[in-house]
Structures are given as C-alpha cells and as structure tokens.
Amino acid sequence: MQAEDLKLLVTWRMPYGKYKDRLLADLPGHYLGWMSREGFPPGRLGELLAIMFELDHNALRHLLDPLRRQ
Fold first, then answer.
1. I want to staple 55 with a disulfide (CB 3.0 to 4.6 A). Which of 13, 42, 59, 60 is the partner?
2. Which InterPro entries match (predicted)?
C-alpha cells in the first residue's frame, strides 16, 4: 500500500452496484466483506477495495480522516 492509495480511497467513487457513486472510503463494512468473499473486481478498483476492506476489518478507517480534510 502506498500513500497515493489512501488518497484515492477518499476521492474515487464506486462505479456500479448498490453503492454506485459512494466514495470507496464510505462503503459499508458488510459490503466490503461480501466483496472479499465473492472476489474483488480486477484491476485498480479491486486493489483499492481490498485495501479498504483491510482498513475496515482492522478498525483503521480513522486513518483516512486527515485525507478527507485536504
């Protein structure tokens, strides 16, 4: 994980599905868990969703708060 990855989590929006247009950082934990079990999509989006899942699962979402303020 790079610092740039964390910045992208607070700027990229989910491109499809029930949570379309929601910031990746704002996706609910149950949805991230479901995606983890079903398989993350390929490419950059899948990588970012996997990072967000790890942050949520380990109760580290607060690390994104300073990036939201920028």
1. 60
2. QSregVF_b
